[in-house]
Amino acid sequence: MRWGEHLEYVAEASPGDFIYIPPYVPHQEINGLANEPLECVIVRSDNDAIVVNLQIEPVEKPEPVIWVDDLHKHG
Length: 75
Description:
Elements: E1 2-3, E2 9-10, E3 27-28, E4 63-64
Parallel strand pairs: 2-4
Antiparallel strand pairs: 1-2, 1-3
């Protein structure tokens, strides 16, 4: 998942993970593995399926966001 005004942040989700993107924050679901299908569930908080395809050129090297909790040990 990439998000931010210039898609400058990136995080990887694994099975069972949850990524929260606040309303109106530009974001992009991406598949990091070209040889495997991407399967995910997207939940919106309203009844309108509003999707706006934005023409945003992502930054060359997004800043990774590291999750550190009981399930995601860093390093």
